[in-house]
Amino acid sequence: MENERMNLLSGETETKAGNTEFTNGFCTECGISPPLRAHHCRHCGKCVAKFDHHCFLLGTCIGERNHCRFWWYLLFQSAELAFSIMVSATIRIMGTSERRIAGHGLPPVAFLALTSMTTHEVGHDPEYFPYLQGFQECDLPFSRGVAANLVQFCSPPRRQTAWAPTMWPRPLPFDRNSDFTCSTLWENKYYSCC
């Protein structure tokens, strides 16, 4: 297993488990075969596991290792913004009763955490990603259910000598006539919202 992980990270071979492909092609910039859902960030110049986006404010990519910390960062920044607005309004005694709502960035990030999606995947048509071809725009192919998604999103990195990205298996096609509607939330045998 360790040899497979090292081969994957070095780009020497493509790791497969049965017929399930775990790699996302080959990154010519980094010279490796990045894991599925990884993306090469042109700003950082490296491949990022479960790439979400590059945050210019923090000067780093948001991905598998820091997604939960980014959520907490947004939460505390939103609370600080709300507190600042409240203090400022109290000091200035504003003429209007209009209040600005702080934390507009939290609901989208919370949705991504609950569904195991990334802004990079949501911001593109599924046909943009080879591993999402055949899926529709509102499908959740990587969702494992709300509880499992939150555990995966918030779990601290495992204690090891070297961190290794999650090896996401290529998602299987959906059966839209099944009783399981978590992955086909917007279109299934009971209703269609899209």
Automatic annotation (TrEMBL):
GO molecular function: protein-cysteine S-palmitoyltransferase activity
Catalytic activity reported: L-cysteinyl-[protein] + hexadecanoyl-CoA = S-hexadecanoyl-L-cysteinyl-[protein] + CoA
Organism: Lagenidium giganteum
GO cellular component, one term: Golgi apparatus
Any GO BP annotation: protein targeting to membrane
Enzyme's top EC category: transferase
Protein name: Palmitoyltransferase
Annotated signal sequence range: none
Domain Palmitoyltransferase DHHC intervals: 24-90
Membrane-topology descriptor: Multi-pass membrane protein
Upper taxonomic lineage: Eukaryota, Sar, Stramenopiles, Oomycota, Peronosporomycetes
EC number(s) reported in the record: 2.3.1.225
Family label: Belongs to the DHHC palmitoyltransferase family.
Annotated localization: Endomembrane system
Domain notes: The DHHC domain is required for palmitoyltransferase activity.
Metal-binding keyword on record: no
Keyword Zinc carried by entry: no
Keyword annotations: Acyltransferase, Lipoprotein, Membrane, Palmitate, Transferase, Transmembrane, Transmembrane helix
